[in-house]
Amino acid sequence: MNTLQGQATEQQIAEWKKKHKYGIYAIEAEGYVAYFKNPGRAELNCAMSRADREKPLDIYEELGRLTFIGGSEEILSDDQIFIGVCQEIKVKLDGKKAQLVNL
Length: 103
Known about the structure:
Elements: H1 10-19, E1 24-29, E2 32-37, H2 41-48, H3 58-67, E3 68-71, H4 74-77, H5 79-94
Antiparallel strand pairs: 1-2, 2-3
């Protein structure tokens, strides 16, 4: 098994899972790994406030920064890696699925 740069121990992952109410997830890219907590309303509101037609990636950068809990910061700081990471962070903006029911 290859060790990724920024890889946390099982003990650290277990501690993060206990600490973060909505759970955690990891993103692996180009030999690096970073860990994030699932966003709550506060993080989503803050990230959405960065929405700008001129700079559409700012929202993903802000959400990544707000929810980063450990691992390699290279995931967020390297432009080429971050482009791919944006697609994974975007999934977290979708949240849980809901259904509108007309009555």
